[in-house]
Amino acid sequence: MVSPASPATVTHIAALARFGHALSDATRTGILLALREAPAFPSDLADALGVSRQVMSNQLACLRGCGLVEAIPDGRRTWYRLADPHIAPALDELLRVTLFVEPGCCAGEECTCA
């Protein structure tokens, strides 16, 4: 018999709320998806996602504040990686669940779910 999940705590709720906040912005979501593949420099992320370096800086600061990415100094530059090895598989699983529920919901840039 499978035991029931442990009850949600204030810490659990806060952690998932931060994760949800991070995913609520397309640029932040793109950053997390890019970093699940490999660490990267902000300039490379900005180029890949088609945003300015200032926007990238702001979004990386948000993700650091959420505890999802960490900055690694490398000489005069800094690169970023996911803060915990569990984040990449969690994103993969979330993609599978979301796509299973409604695969055509948000095709392209415009979401038609709402």
Automatic annotation (TrEMBL):
One GO process term, biological-process aspect: response to cadmium ion
Molecular functions per Gene Ontology: cadmium ion sensor activity; DNA binding; DNA-binding transcription factor activity; lead ion binding
Residue intervals of the HTH arsR-type domain: 8-102
CDD domains with a match to the protein in the record: HTH_ARSR
Protein name: ArsR family transcriptional regulator
